Amino acid sequence: MSKTPLIKGIHHVTATVNDAQEDYHFYTRVLGMRLVKKTVNFDNHHVYHFYYGDQVGSPGTVFTTFPYKGQPKVSQGVEGSGLIIATALSVPSASLQFWDERLKAHGVLVTHGERFGQAFLWFRDPSGLQIELIGDDNDAREPWQCPEEPTITVAEGIRGIHHVTISVAPEHWEAMLEFLPTEMNMQVLMSENNRVRLGVNGAGAGHYLELRRDTHVARGRNGIGTVHHVAWIVENDEALMAMRGRMEARGFKPTEFKDRKYFHSVYFKPYAGMWFEMATMQPGFTVDEPEETLGEHLLLPDWEEVNRAEIEAILPKVN
Fold first, then answer.
1. Other residues' Cβ atoms within 10 Å of the Cβ of residue 286
2. pTM of the full predicted structure?
3. Separation of alpha carbons 13 and 221, rounded Å
4. φ, ψ of residue 186 in degrees (nearest 5)
């Protein structure tokens, strides 16, 4: 089977969170990201699906959430091996002091660190997700200029996803380090203590994955306050199905082709147990509303329009 490199970088990260209003306020008003799409979970229309990103929700800038507060059968998640345990967002290094002060002013507990020569801030969002703001002056992506938060200027704005960190149990460590370069177009760039950084289709913000080898950490469990999956960019449907074939050959039992309206995708679980998604770059978030009004209205997939009245009555109001 051909091993042509098909993975281009990080497409988005999706997490299960708690309260919708709390989540919306934190990511738009505190962090200054743009809500580029307000829709529903395509598998459960009683739950929002929020997409936060840059001005148009460019692949690599998008962090998405499912607010599951009050939903039956969805409990608090448990951090541990086999899960994505932290999501790092890229900012200019000179802005870290600004973010430290801003987060503390909003009652967020912040700690400072340095990894692979880059300073970062670590904190938890309102649902308990581990978030990092990492200083990367080589990230040339343009941040969203949030009109409601003019104090967050271009000099401070979040550029997009920098990397995610996966907790890997020792029994999966070697398998992951074989699988990622062989199938996912990644290379180990550097190591530090119990952690390695891999570059996806080269290197740079939005093209990193970090693995942390955790010897005495219990297996994690998805739920509120945990990342559900990271999605990786493939260029088109042809590349998507080619990658699906590779994962099937690996015995990972990938899902069928899924039309998520804003991209097409396939999901699978590699050795360490977390969900990976492969997602196309197109059609993008302007397929059903103009760039100027992205995220301002509830957008539904075509098959849910007949249920709009019921859905709008159930979903909590956010503003």
1. 16
2. 0.96
3. 17
4. -120, 155
76, part of any domain: yes
Three-class secondary structure of residue 68 per DSSP: coil
CATH at 213: 3.10.180.10
Q: Is residue 218 part of a domain?
A: yes
Q: How far apart are CA 121 and CA 92, in angstroms?
A: 12
pLDDT tens digits, 215-244: 999 999 999 999 999 999 999 999 999 999
Domain that holds residue 219: 10-314
Bigger pLDDT: 5 vs 15: 15
- Residue environment code for 116-152, b if the CB has 16+ CB neighbours within 10 A, otherwise e: bebebbbbebbbebbbbbbbbeebebebbebeebeeb
Total structural domains in the chain? 1
pLDDT in tens, 132-163: 999 999 999 999 999 999 999 999 999 999 99
In sequence order, which residues have a C-beta less than 8 Å from that of residue 88 and are 6 or more positions away?
120, 131, 132, 133, 134, 161, 162, 163, 164, 165
Which residues, including other chains, have CB under 8 Å from residue 111's CB and lie 6 or more apart? Answer: 121, 122, 123
**Cβ neighbours of 170 (radius 10 Å):** 12
